[in-house]
Design goal:
By secondary structure, the protein is mainly α. The chain has one domain. The chain is 78% helix and 1% strand. The protein contains 8 helices and 2 strands, in the order αααααααββα. Strands 1-2 form a two-stranded antiparallel sheet. Helix 2 packs parallel to helix 3. The protein is rod-shaped and about 135 Å long. 27% of the residues are buried.
Length: 339
């Protein structure tokens, strides 16, 4: 076996021994774990994003539906105010019914969309590979620098002469001699320093990335938990919006029915005025007075229903619920009289 071939084999064995010593089972386990963690991190982040995006879309859809219904309600309320209710107020004044229907200014119904529960920012954590690369490079250079300094001291070479090519070759030969155990060989020495640089670089790189992956896994787990907490809060908020929308639809239904009935009572008031004339309320026939009182009751409840906001501070207004119940009671009472 030639001396050069033997030197190459010795160099390979030395590198393998160094790698075995440098990369412990613990490090290898961290590297394997890193690959598993990476897949889990991707899965957790993707799931978290999906959870947040899904619940936010549901909220937007419910808000779009509620806003559309609020626009319908606003149009209906303005129509009632400007037609049948306005006519009723004029007719009631003509028949001498002095009860005030209130002149509170009309405010279009609206629902404030609060943003206090802002969705968490879900993004893929940094892998740390760039930082690991830089640290690995620095570690590799530090290792080569340390080995070079050792041989400078061993050979008694002035560090200031290190830029001299002959001095560099002398150091590489000495490194090669240490590796082969035979004659000096600058090529083996250069390969040994390169191998040491690479081994240290890989150890630092893989350990740093593995540790970063472990931290990222914990962060991804926290984001996943935060996404579920956010979903829980937004699900509750979604139900509040749906409840408000259902209330708005009930208001529209009752208002539409009361409006039809009010128009019928407006016709009765016109008939009373036509047949009995305009005079003091107490001077009308008892049946006519009852119709006038019912007309006023309907007009009053409609007015209160219209001027009572359906939502306050982004939540269903309890007062509106009570007003709606009273309107439903009056509606049922009138319907029983009519049928």
């Amino acid at each position: 076996m030639s001396e050069e071939k033997k030197a190459q084999e010795n160099l390979q064995e030395a590198q393998e021994d160094t790698q075995e010593v440098g990369v412990s089972e613990e490090v290898q386990e961290k590297v394997r774990q890193q690959m598993e963690d990476k897949d889990e991190i991707h899965s957790l982040v993707d799931t978290s994003k999906s959870i947040v995006e899904s619940v936010e879309k549901e909220i937007r859809d419910e808000m779009d539906k509620l806003n559309a219904d609020l626009e319908k309600l606003s149009s209906l309320e303005q129509e009632v105010l400007n037609t049948s209710l306005k006519t009723a107020e004029e007719l009631l004044r003509e028949v001498g019914y002095e009860e005030d229907l209130s002149n509170v200014e009309f405010v279009p119904p609206a629902f404030e969309y609060d943003k206090k529960d802002k969705p968490p920012i879900i993004k893929e954590p940094s892998s740390g590979k760039f930082s690991a690369f830089i640290l690995g490079i620095l570690g590799g250079f530090a290792t080569v620098g340390g080995i070079t300094y050792y041989y400078l001291q061993k050979l008694g070479i002035d560090p200031n002469l290190l830029a001299n090519k002959e001095q560099i070759i002398e150091i590489l030969k000495e490194v090669g001699k240490t590796i082969t155990g035979t004659s000096p060989n600058e090529y083996v020495g250069g390969a040994a320093l390169g191998g040491a640089f690479l081994i240290v670089f890989l150890i630092i790189y893989k350990i740093f990335v593995a540790v970063k992956a472990s931290r990222n896994l914990k962060l991804a787990q926290e984001l996943h938990e935060e996404a579920h907490i956010h979903k829980s809060k937004r699900e509750e908020r979604k139900e509040q919006i749906k409840g408000t929308d259902e209330h708005v639809n009930r208001v529209m239904d009752v208002l539409d029915k009361l409006n039809v009935i009010l128009e019928e009572y407006n016709a009765k008031l016109k008939r009373i005025l036509h047949l009995e004339g305009a005079k003091n309320f107490q001077d009308y026939h008892e049946k006519s007075k009852k119709d006038i009182e019912d007309a006023y009751k309907i007009a009053r409840e409609i007015k209160i229903l219209i001027i009572t906001p359906e939502a306050v501070n982004g939540e269903l207004n309890q007062e509106s619920i009570e007003v709606l119940r009273e309107n439903e009671r009056v509606l049922n009472e009138i319907l029983q009289k009519l049928y």
